Amino acid sequence: MDNCTAILTHAEIDTVLCGTPREIGHNYSIVDFTATDAMKADSMGLVHGGFIFGLADYAAMIAVNHPHVVLASAEVTFQKPAAVGDKLVARAVIAATKGKKRDVTVEITRNGEIVFKGTFICAVLDKHVMTGR
């Protein structure tokens, strides 16, 4: 991974399911992802959108890069379908900071073609969301 910052969040995530960080810097990340056969939703090889969303969410989390970052909400659009074997690239950038919230824009492409766009509202908490649960 080419980076200028260590990843401080989601340390135990499965990179096969959510992508492999390629680059992380101040307020941005780039994550690579290859859709596997286990992700297909049908006999045509359509990848279930939940895996694409997971890639985008992970990219947003490491763009924020705080140990206690969580997703508060998301507004997304699926522009094109993804298929088994597709190599996707997620680019996430913090567009705005409002107190403990970060607005993160995420774009996922396949060979330069946009397949997904979203805005993720991430909250930076004082302690782990599972503390005291």
Task: Outline the structure in words.
It is a single chain. This protein has about 130 residues and is of the alpha+beta class. The protein has a single domain, classed as Roll (Thiol Ester Dehydrase, Chain A), CATH 3.10.129. It contains two helices and six strands. The protein has helices at about 15-20, 50-65; strands spanning about 20-25, 30-35, 70-80, 85-100, 100-110, 115-125. Strands 1-2-4-5-6-3 form a six-stranded antiparallel β-sheet. Strand 4 and strand 5 form a beta hairpin. The longest helix has 16 residues, at about 50-65. About 30% of the residues are buried.
Overall radius of gyration? 14 Å
Strand order of the largest sheet: 1-2-4-5-6-3
Q: What would the CATH topology be?
A: Thiol Ester Dehydrase, Chain A
Number of domain units: 1
The proportion of strand residues reads 35-45%
What is the terminal-to-terminal distance?
34 Å
E-strand count: 6
Structural class: alpha+beta
Extract low-pLDDT stretches: none
Instruction: Report the biggest beta sheet as strand number plus sense, adding barrel if it closes.
Output: 6 strands, antiparallel
Name the average pLDDT. 95
List keywords for this structure.
alpha+beta; Thiol Ester Dehydrase, Chain A; six-stranded antiparallel β-sheet; 6 strands
Q: Brief overview, please?
A:
The chain has helices at 15-18, 49-64, and strands spanning 20-25, 28-34, 69-78, 87-98, 101-110, 113-124. By secondary structure, it is an alpha+beta fold. A six-stranded antiparallel beta sheet has the order 1-2-4-5-6-3.
